[in-house]
Amino acid sequence: MSTPGLRTVDPARHTSWRSRRLDPDHSLGLRLTLAASAAFLVLVPFALLALLVLGAWAPLHRLDGAITDVLHGYAVDHPVWVTLMRVWSEVFAPLPLRAVALLVVIWLLRRGARRLAFWAATTLVVGGLFGPLLKLLVGRDRPDLLDPVARAAGYSFPSGHALNATLAAGVLLLVFLPYAGRGVWRVVLWVAAVLVTVLTGVSRVALGVHFASDVLGGWLLGVAVIAATTAAFTSWRAHTGLRPVHPAREGVAPEIERHPDDT
């Protein structure tokens, strides 16, 4: 029985912001906080790397130069290797990857998974726009080689190929993980995503059109964008009452395999 003249105090209204963020039962609590923190922690090394590139930090410059010289020397002596790297770089260039991603977005829309399609499109568009903008802001020139085996236009940091390969591989992985089950196909998907991301970046350094730090910057930025948009998508899920998910194990929308309209 309540005492007249006294208001009932709702304990939830007086919990601190930090307590709510770290509360596992809160819809926007622990899981969102950890995901957003992961995105921030990935963005920090990218920002540090960008500052080192802008400041022309001597140790980074020497390391980039040494890696470029070794790979370029190997490329000059091995034309077959150059051909393989060119083919890989063209097949997994930003434009073909965006075309594949567009087909997946259309497929998701036809299945009724509108929110998942929006997440995929947003991740690719936002991440893709960051690349050219940062290239202009940093203004780093590409490697200047006496006997180049390939050429590319524009500025160098971050690598657009590495960025877009990371974005596309990450989006496709998180969309199709629900179809992989718990067996070997999950491993196959992860291996394929990592191979596409890594080899696409390596091909750009092997062809002498990017420094190693350009590729590293593209990878870091791509992972940060995926982590941020995934955090936003999983928070929306919690807010609408859908069960929490572990994106790395089951994708961002496990329901798509059975109930695409829920995503």
TrEMBL record:
Residues 116-230 form the Phosphatidic acid phosphatase type 2/haloperoxidase domain. The chain crosses the membrane at residues 28-54, 91-109, 116-138, 158-180, 187-207, 219-236. It comes from the Bacteria. Pfam families: PAP2. Keywords: Membrane, Transmembrane, Transmembrane helix. CDD domains: PAP2_like_2 (cd03392). This is Phosphatase PAP2 family protein. The lineage of its organism: Bacteria, Bacillati, Actinomycetota, Actinomycetes, Micromonosporales.
